[in-house]
Amino acid sequence: MTSERRYYLTTPIYYVNDKPHIGHAYTSLAADVLARWKRMSGYQVHFLTGTDEHGQKVEKAAEARGMDPQAFTDQVSQAFRDLAARMNYSNDDFIRTTEERHKRACTALWKRLEERGEIYLGHYEGWYAVRDEAFYGPDEITEKDGQKFAPTGAPVEWVREPSYFFRLAAWQDRLLAFYDEHPDFIMPQTRRNEVISFVKSGLTDLSISRTSFKWGVKVPGDEAHVMYVWLDALTNYITALGYPDENADLWRFWPADVHFVGKDIVRFHAIYWPAFLMAAGLPVPRRVFAHGWWTNEGQKISKSVGNVIDPVALVEQYGLDPVRFFLLREVPFGNDGDFSRKSLIQRLNSELANDLGNLAQRTLSLIQRNCDGHLPAAGASDPADAELLDAVSALPERVEEALSRQAFHEALERIQSVSRLGNSWIDAQKPWSLKKTDLERMASVLRHLHTALRALATVLQPFMPDTMTRMLDQLGVPAEARDLAALATPLPDGTALPPPSPLFQKIQDEPA
Ligand code: MSP
């Protein structure tokens, strides 16, 4: 198996200080769609998600609930596992940083960095934000009402303690050279520019251990220290492939093809992580893609405002696949976006129920009624056919091209344009009238529409797996003929099709 047929993608591992919300569901959804697409394209895929369970933030959250941190993390981690199942994510593994395999990997990575002279013991004195689990420079701090804040809005506290340091400053030029040689390492471009200017403004060595709390992986040889939670957390991406055992079967998936992250955690993934890896002599991931943040009806989402969006409630109300579709369709991946019920309802009604749903329903009902429920054969070709058939045959490649840039919204727009074309084509060809005038042409028209629907359902599977399974069932496509390669082989004429039933429900507008 050649290396280009393997694909490794990851989500961030989620903090277990609180229950899952829309932001968590969103990052994982994008990764899930790409994982499914790659599998369908014949790749061996490894898709990883999990939970980030160490650090002061989690320790404090457990304390606030009067719980032992391990019992607390067991409970919250399970909520993230349940969310993954509820959202139909196809992750191949779910990692927890409190697992033994992970402690082993962190310890090994630490030792390797130490052996290579990348770690030294010193003192840390500076600003730390527990909420971000991040250190900030003095020039980044602002003050309001006597309280100091990080640029993220998180309160910071002055920390002074003995600490191990990673020689990050020494990696500045090599990082800049790396970004230069790999223009697609950080996407989108805006994030890449931010990272580069941050690195150019000068890196300082990074404090990578803490002594003021206990909930973490112990530093080998100096157990008064626990590892800085971001060093611990980032290592999860290699733990899951068997590190430090580079003969492990899964190790062939390294380096990762894409780490999906939110824009708030780009710095860790695009600066610290490649520096740690280069310093350890390990290959660096191919891409870090940072998506934007959702607001709720124009407002910043926050627990104190009480406008947190619960993905499970949303799915209960509107259905899983419509929600999966909407989240990736509404906002260009990489941009910030606003969640509004009105636009959700509009999109579901117009794009799913009207465009795709109606096209399927009209075509399949006509085949049921006029062709005795059997797939008609195409007759002589007509100059009008190319308009539809060319767009259909180009579709998989056009979707691939968009997804190779993580442009989920563009992939969906390209799919949508074929579904709109199908509707205008059926209106122009009028197969319902041809029944009386030209049976052979009617059969051809329905056959071509069936071909279009099969392609649409096939490429939409990663976005809406359950609904597209039903659609492919209705189209009479056997289970083994649902990947991209199978599209090259037409279904046999005369294939029996079950009676159709609607795929999408129209949603009534809610009172404002
Ligand atoms: N534990 C770290 C990641 C470690 S990865 C080695 C962490 N966890 S988190 O639970 O706080 O956040 C996880 C993801 O949720 C981030 O990618 C973040 O961007 C995303 N989101 C949190 N709120 C969000 C929105 N309102 N909108 C979109 N995504 C957001 O960070």
Report low-confidence residues grouped into runs of 5 or more: none
What is the total tally of β strands? 17
Gyration radius, rounded: 26 Å
Fourth-level CATH superfamily of the largest domain: HUPs
* Overall helicity: 40-55%
Count of domain modules:
2
Overall pLDDT score: 96
- Please report the number of helical segments: 17
Q: List the ligand species.
A: 5'-O-[(L-methionyl)-sulphamoyl]adenosine
CATH topology name of the largest domain: Rossmann fold
CATH class category of the largest domain: Alpha Beta
Tell me what portion of residues adopts beta-strand conformation: 15-25%
Largest sheet: 6 strands, parallel
Instruction: Find the structural class using helix and strand composition.
Output: alpha/beta
Distance N terminus to C terminus? 56 Å
Strand order in the sheet with the most strands: 3-2-1-13-14-9
Pfam family, one: tRNA-synt_1g
Region (Disordered): 490-512
Protein name: Methionine--tRNA ligase
Subcellular location: Cytoplasm
